[in-house]
Specification:
By secondary structure, the chain is an all-alpha fold. It contains 9 helices and no strands. The longest helix has about 55 residues. This is YqaA family protein.
């Protein structure tokens, strides 16, 4: 079944939409606060479809992701008990958030940098930084450097890979997709 290849083709088509850049900005912002899907899934096809704008898309993704991170920071700083804590309990993420707080105590600003660059849910760390009253400017600097590094790397790979990479991704996207689904099911079964 080639469902992921069909979705990949649709993503490339949608990435050419006249409002795609606005959607990328919105996704980048919300992912840093609440949304579970990373902006890379939109940035990569957009950079592939329009390589002449790859660097612009990386800037948009970076800036709006950092702005979302700032929003998450202030949610944690000012609205943890009335807004964030009930949401964490409702979603069953209270234990994960306790682990984030422990990492802040151990690693400080470095944990923001690592979360901003890696696939670790960045939103937990933006809210955690505010909750832990981390100094704002180091948080902002670590967020900007980490997010820019990640998104410019993605855009650069798509830009330099070009048509060859686009075709190669299209050829293997079903294998990657089903492998990810299988890994998610396995992790669910192991950790439930």
């Amino acid at each position: 079944m080639r469902i992921f290849q069909w979705m990949y083709d649709k993503a490339l088509l949608w990435s050419r939409h006249r409002h795609a850049e606005r959607y990328l900005a919105g996704l980048s912002f919300t992912e840093s606060v609440i949304f579970p899907i990373p902006p890379d899934v939109m940035l990569a096809p957009m950079a592939l479809a329009r390589p002449e704008k790859a660097w612009r898309f990386a800037w948009v993704t970076t800036l709006f992701s950092v702005l979302g991170g700032v929003c998450g920071y202030f949610l944690g700083l000012w609205l943890y008990e009335p807004v964030v804590l009930p949401a964490m309990e409702y979603l069953g993420k209270h234990d994960a958030f306790a682990k984030v707080q422990q990492w802040f105590t151990e690693y400080g600003v470095w944990v923001v940098f690592i979360a901003g660059f890696s696939p670790i849910p960045y939103k937990l760390f933006t809210v955690g930084a505010g909750l832990m009253s981390m100094a704002f400017w180091p948080f902002l600097l670590a967020s900007f450097i980490a997010r820019a590094s990640r998104f410019f790397l993605v855009a650069g790979l798509m830009y330099w890979g070009g048509e060859k990479m686009q075709q190669k991704l299209r050829d293997i996207v079903d294998t990657l997709g089903w492998g990810t689904v299988g890994l998610a099911v396995l992790l669910y079964l192991v950790y439930r």
